[in-house]
Specification:
The complex is a heterodimer of chains A (460) and B (448). Chain A is of the alpha/beta class and 460 residues long. In chain A, 46% of the residues lie in helices and 13% in strands. Chain B folds into 3 domains: 121 residues, Nitrogenase molybdenum iron protein domain (Rossmann fold, 3-Layer(aba) Sandwich); 128 residues, Nitrogenase molybdenum iron protein domain (Rossmann fold, 3-Layer(aba) Sandwich), CATH 3.40.50; 105 residues, Nitrogenase molybdenum iron protein domain (Rossmann fold, 3-Layer(aba) Sandwich), CATH 3.40.50. In chain B, strands 1-12-11-10-13-14 form a 6-stranded mixed beta sheet, sandwiched between helices. In chain B, strands 3-2-4-5 form a 4-stranded parallel beta sheet, with helices on both faces. Strand 1 of chain A pairs antiparallel with strand 3 of chain B, so a sheet runs across the interface. The structure holds iron/sulfur cluster (SF4) (2 copies).
Chain lengths: 460, 448
């Protein structure tokens, strides 16, 4: 057994993370920046970080992921990285010709204390930024928060730079997307469009990290929010931040900068969260909810009713990011399942509070933890003490799944060993259906494989 | 070739008769390049990682550990401790006040619970900056817990992967020679530089054992701390992949006067040479006879099987971009055996000698690259009309986007590629990828 070293008895741990349920800030900043059209993410630090982030995103999307690095060396880490960054800006515009460079820091440059804002200003003063090109930045020290924090910080960096408020407000609404898959972004846009809302979504990684194979390698694929859209977002009549952890600060920043009021809603995973998303869009755009949407909702409810007997009382362990976990746990409760263990490496008191709200009445036995010490090792120990029927989370659950023979639904980041997440959404009513289909498939496959001949059933 | 940064013109070379084959390598990457290179820590980590009964604790913020969690398929025949990810997960307070206490605590907790045979403690960039005295803490824990605790000072910014290899070798060298609790015969070798990806090491072991050679320590594929501690008792070090383990071989030569020999296990020629040379070293007639026999048997099985694939590959063109240039040399030869001509060959961290060898080996017009980037690679592929790309994780999707075949010759190989069996696997993989029907559905303009 791969994880045979995990003991059942919980061990005293003061200072240690084993098998983390999170990763570091810059990868989030990189992912967010990829959602801007013509943007090249840039990692201000040593080469290793950048290479790891790119590899991880490449493994998750099976797509080329481009990002440049300041290539710190010993000298830079003593004297600061200004020279490297200035040089990098020149080189990047000369050779890779992006519209935008989106710089994020790393642990190293943060600790040295490089002032990105000042360095970029200098680059601009020295004429190193060609006319019509842009350099934005985000501070992303990994010893604070998690990969989600990095995503949120890059969104703030985008807001700091692009949106402009003029006299004329438009009737567009901004959809500030949390960290979800490109398929999910597409689905949210589809739903909004079905309702007749005019939207600007950012970031938008659809058609950037899931592109077609047409015999030509393009450094900047066709997708991504455009610069003109980003500028125009300052004139929208309202913003909706989708996912508190990832978008709240950006939504606030946009309100402060351009007086665009905002509402926050959960990532629309499952029935109720999708209801809230639809309502938020309807309210912001001042439109009514069309029958076509109600119809989709009805189908999801129908399948839940049909399949309730297979879902009822099933114990689930989940790990991932708060913005996904909160609506997902709520959905599981709505399915009459029992999300009993929930872990996120991303810190935040709000998470435990939300979990309490959702679970205290219906699943009082649930255990959940966020931040320090909340890792896969701890979750595995919980499972060893009292098993579950289903695991939901990123690829790193496969060890537990195999060792304990528990069905495993892959959701979250990263998924290194399956495809589909780029193309098939898990948000919206149809996304809820997909989650259901997957869960049921896992349960039924297990039943088919393991049930004794006598109780092997044709019709399920 | 608009896409070459002017400052790196000398890192690209086209082979021409009589022209200089001097390439500007071992340079630091330019700031701002989309370099395919990694860091020192990465180098140390991949080299030491397959020591399966040791604790690998990464001292740093979470990322460096999260990204290296079980990313290399190094198989173990016993413990699987190495497949977990242990990190001190430094927070802001540690950056300000230092992480020594955190490190000490973590180590003690882990060693008590998991009972590893040794511990490797990796320093990442930030540790170098906040000035933790990792060495002192390692010494302290070593004393208290009675197992070797080795600091691996692999701060990423010190250089590239290659520098990390050296640091890893230094850590291993500290283990070598510390124990004498193993019977080792006169005809024994250590295998250095194979990491047991897809079980390759087990294949090699079998070949060597068949010709009558005893394997003492395998460093580090399927590696064990006790074997490494006894590694000085072998008569010969056989080193594959010159990049990562040469330094250890040289150290052992100096300290214990153990001779070493550079080999490659990739491709028929190189694999056979690896056996013959070891047999020759021991000046053992019997061993040589057995080697000849083994090679004959294997080849008589292999060649007919290869013929099938060769027919479908004859005249195709390949681009190679791998970690070390030495590996590229074996690849060029193996591809030639399949009837494939190499038109582009490059590496992240090759040295001058390697590139010179490469240039000598390759045909006229072959493009030779050091520390390349995606744009450049894609331009050259289009320009040369290559049908196949051999590289690592970051190159795969680029190759596919252009619409050509791909073979992973790095961490993510799924099939053993070493030895005779490996040659078949390699041929099969290349054949399947190059001749996949999917390429008929793409619109790549074939440049013939
Ligand atoms: S140093 Fe920081 S930014 Fe770089 S990989 Fe490690 S945790 Fe991430
Ligand atoms: S922080 Fe340093 S050691 Fe860690 S991945 Fe980045 S370059 Fe490598």
């Amino acid at each position: 057994m791969l994880l045979r070293h995990t003991p059942k008895d919980s061990i005293e741990r003061k200072a240690l993370t084993i098998n983390p349920a999170k990763t570091c800030q810059p990868i989030g900043a990189m992912y967010a920046a990829l959602g801007i059209h013509g943007c090249l993410p840039h990692s201000h630090g040593s080469q290793g970080c950048c290479s790891y982030h790119r590899s991880t995103l490449t493994r998750h999307y099976k797509e080329p992921i481009m990002a440049a690095t300041s290539s710190f060396t010993e000298g830079a880490s003593v004297f600061g990285g200004q020279a490297n960054l200035l040089q990098a800006i020149t080189n990047i515009f000369e050779i890779y010709e992006p519209e935008i460079i989106a710089i994020h820091s790393t642990c190293l440059s943060e600790t040295i204390g490089d002032d990105l804002n000042q360095i970029i200003q200098k680059a601009s003063d020295d004429g190193k930024i060609p006319l019509g090109k842009h350099v934005i930045y985000a501070n992303t020290p990994s010893y604070v928060g998690s990969h989600v924090t990095g995503y949120a910080n890059m969104l703030k960096g985008i807001i700091r730079y692009f949106p402009e408020a003029t006299e004329k407000k438009t009737d567009f609404i901004n959809l500030i997307s949390g960290w979800v898959e490109p398929s999910d972004m597409k689905e949210m846009k589809r739903l909004a469009k079905m309702m007749g809302a005019k939207t600007i979504m950012f970031p938008d990684t659809s058609d950037v990290v899931e592109t077609s194979l047409d015999g030509d390698y393009k450094m900047y694929p066709k997708g991504g929010t455009t610069i003109s859209e980003l500028i125009a977002s300052g004139n929208s009549k309202k913003s909706i931040g989708i996912g508190t952890w990832a978008t709240k600060e950006a939504a606030i920043a946009l309100e402060n900068k351009c007086k665009v009021p905002f509402a926050l809603t959960d990532v629309p995973i499952g029935l109720q969260a999708t209801d809230r998303f639809i309502q938020a869009v309807a309210k912001a755009a001042e439109i009514s909810i069309p029958d076509s949407i109600t119809n989709e909702r009805g189908k999801l409810v129908d399948v839940i009713a049909d399949m309730h007997q297979y879902l009822y009382g099933k114990r689930v362990a989940l790990w991932g990011d708060p913005d996904q976990l909160i609506p997902l746990v709520e959905f599981l409760v709505d399915l009459d399942m029992k999300p009993v263990y929930i872990v996120t490496g991303t810190p935040g008191k709000l998470f435990e509070q939300k979990m309490k709200e959702i679970l205290s009445e219906k699943v009082p036995e649930a255990k959940y933890k966020a931040g320090e010490g909340a890792d896969m090792f701890m979750m595995h120990q919980w499972i060893k003490n009292e098993p579950v029927d289903l695991l939901i989370g990123n690829t790193y659950g496969k060890y537990i799944s195999r060792d304990e023979n528990i069905p495993f639904l892959r959701m979250g980041f990263p998924i290194l060993d399956r495809i589909g997440h780029s193309y098939f959404p898990t948000v919206g009513y149809m996304g809820g259906l997909r989650i259901l289909e997957k869960i049921l498939g896992l349960f039924m496959d297990k039943q088919d494989a393991e049930s004794p001949e006598t109780s092997f059933e044709l019709v399920m | 070739m608009g896409s070459i940064l002017t400052d790196r013109k000398n890192q690209v070379l086209t082979k021409k008769l009589g022209a200089s084959t001097d390439i500007d390598c071992a340079k630091e990457s330019l700031a701002g390049s989309v370099s395919q290179r990694a860091c020192v820590f990465c180098g140390s980590r991949v080299v030491l990682y397959p020591v399966t009964d040791a604790l690998h604790l990464i001292h740093g913020p979470v990322g460096c550990a999260a990204y290296t969690w079980d990313i290399r398929g190094s198989l173990s025949s016993d413990r699987e401790l190495h497949r977990n990810s242990f990190t001190t997960d430094l927070r802001e307070k540690h950056i300000v006040f230092g992480g020594e206490q955190q490190l000490y605590q973590s180590m003690v907790e882990l060693i008590d619970k998991l009972k590893p045979e040794a511990a490797f403690v990796y320093s990442t960039c930030i540790v170098g900056l906040i000035g933790d005295d990792v060495e002192a803490i390692c010494k302290k824990v070593e004393k208290e817990k009675g197992i070797p605790v080795l600091p691996v000072q692999s701060e990423g910014f010190q250089g590239s992967k290659k520098d990390g290899y050296k640091i890893a070798c230094d850590a291993l060298a500290k283990l070598v020679g510390t124990r004498n609790n193993k019977e080792v015969s006169k005809k024994s070798i250590n295998i250095l530089g194979d990491f047991n990806l897809a079980g390759e090491l087990w294949m090699l072991k079998e070949y060597y054992e068949k010709i009558g050679v005893e394997i003492n320590a395998t460093i580090t594929g399927d590696g064990r701390v006790n074997d490494i501690c006894n590694a000085h008792k072998a008569s010969l070090n056989v080193v594959q992949c010159s990049g990562s383990m040469m330094h250890l071989a040289k150290t052992m030569k100096e300290k214990y006067d153990i001779p070493f020999m550079k080999v490659s296990y990739f491709g028929i020629e190189d694999m056979s040479d690896a056996l013959y040379e070891v047999a020759n070293f021991f000046k053992d007639e019997e061993m040589l006879r057995k080697s000849t026999e083994l090679v004959k048997d294997e080849i008589s099985l292999l060649l007919p099987a290869l013929e099938e694939y060769r027919k479908g590959l004859e005249g195709k063109k390949a681009a190679i971009y791998v970690g070390g240039a030495f590996k590229a040399i074996s690849l060029v030869k193996a591809l030639r055996l399949l009837g494939i001509e190499t038109v582009i060959v490059g590496s992240q961290t090759g040295n001058k000698e390697d590139y010179k060898l490469l240039a000598d080996l390759c045909n006229e017009g072959t493009i030779i690259l050091d520390d390349s980037n995606p744009n450049e690679l894609s331009d050259f592929v289009n320009q040369t009309g290559a049908d196949l790309f051999i590289g690592g994780v970051k190159e795969r999707p680029i190759a596919f986007k252009i619409g050509i075949g791909f073979c992973d010759h790095n961490h993510e190989r799924k099939e053993a590629l070493a030895g005779y069996e490996g040659m078949i696997n390699f041929a099969k993989e290349v054949y399947a990828s190059v001749n996949s029907p999917v390429w008929e559905f793409t619109s790549r303009k074939k440049q013939k």
